[in-house]
Design a protein that fits this description.
It is built from six helices and no strands. By secondary structure, the protein is mainly α.
């Protein structure tokens, strides 16, 4: 499997894993019965749980772009060292972004996000 497809598969795994910290925060705060219910009552999470939810949603917003770029370069045969590096940068920057976001380091989170965007741009530039 190509580096790009490997990074795509790992990014899908990361997206899946990021769904769980907000649920853990909810169970820790409101209990398993509430978390397993319909959650009709408003609730708040601890700050780290709220950040974890935002990190997950941010990944959900960026993952489709990554999928599209990797699929296009793979199917068109445009993969090369730059696309492999871009895909690798995207994955590891997204891992860093999630951890940094949940921990709450402000400016470093933005830098990690920026690196992931550079990774996307590196892949996209190879299509032209």
């Amino acid at each position: 499997m190509s580096t790009e497809l490997t990074m795509l598969a790992l990014s899908a795994g990361l997206t899946f894993v990021l769904a769980f910290p907000p649920v853990v925060a909810l169970m820790m705060t409101k209990g398993l019965v509430f978390a397993a219910g319909n959650r009709d009552e408003p609730y708040t999470l601890p700050v780290w749980g709220e950040r974890a939810g935002r990190a997950y949603r941010n990944m959900l917003e960026n993952f489709p772009v990554f999928v599209a770029l990797v699929v296009v370069v793979h199917l068109s045969g445009a993969t090369n060292e730059a696309t492999a590096l871009g895909a690798t940068l995207f994955l590891w920057a997204r891992v860093a972004h999630a951890v940094i976001y949940i921990v709450g380091i402000r400016y470093l989170r933005t830098a990690a996000f920026g690196v992931s965007i550079v990774g996307l741009a590196m892949i996209a530039m190879q299509m032209f």
